[in-house]
Amino acid sequence: MSPARPLGDFLREWRRRRRMSQLDLALEADISQRHLSFVESGRAVPSREMLLHLAERLGVPLRERNPMLIAAGFAPVFAERKLDDPVLAPARQAIDMVLRGHGPFPALAVDRHWTLVAANAAVTPLLAGVADRSLMDGAVNVLRLSLHPHGLAPHIVNFAEWRNHLLDRLHQQIAATGDRVLEKLLEELAGYPVPETAIRSGPDYAGIAVPMELRTPAGVLSFISTTTVFGTPVDVTLSELAVESFFPANNETARLLRQMAEAGPLKDES
């Protein structure tokens, strides 16, 4: 059995990940650098409240705060429940309400590894062109589905631009969380080829957002997206959920989406 990891190792790792010196963190946490040094070296044991305060200042994900608490001799305080747990029912209802309310525009909810949790009806017709239907079996990874050469990739008009945007987001998420699963996912996605039919850049919308232009049987749809997370979660699962909402970037896209919603799911005619 491997020895328990010292608390100081956790603090140094997250401090370096955030590119903060001991002085930087001490100032952020309103404590002395000497006390922080003693905590990192094991010469002082912080209270549970102080440890959680340091974790908050470091932006440590809830999932990683429990091991820090255990290393300091405290019980973990952040529960991790399954989405179908009755305790999370209000949160799940809120997600469903957001997804339904966003129609006829597409929206979906994902977990920390970009696994699809839920989606509204507007998403289904956008997937008609996916050639490898196994990408939509079981636990569907949204990034894999988007960038796989037999997924949505050949249908994304500004694929190179959208691919760079998604990979940049994944890089940032890895930097923030240190998640090994995401590191492997990034390596996989970065190895996918760029379709020759989908390499041009789309409009920059005055530099305010990276659009996604998707070719569908109804025509080319242009989207800009937003991400919504729960504001004050204390459950690990809830803290890692995100709702991705796609808005029409032009009037023609809005018109086509409303038309598609009225007509029902479209069949791929290609």
Account of the 3D structure:
The protein is α+β, with helices and mostly antiparallel strands and 270 residues long. It contains eleven helices and five strands. The chain has helices at 7-17, 22-29, 33-41, 48-58, 62-71, 89-102, 142-147, 159-177, 180-190, 236-239, 251-263; strands at residues 107-110, 116-119, 212-216, 219-228, 242-248. The chain has a five-stranded antiparallel beta sheet with strand order 2-1-5-4-3. Strand 3 and strand 4 (219-228) form a beta hairpin. It starts with 6 loop residues before the first helix and ends in a 7-residue tail after the last helix. Residues 266-270 have low confidence and may be disordered.
Calculate Rg over CA atoms.
Answer: 22 Å
Order of strands in the sheet with most strands? 2-1-5-4-3
Largest sheet entry: 5 strands, antiparallel
Mean pLDDT: 90
Report the count of strand segments: 5
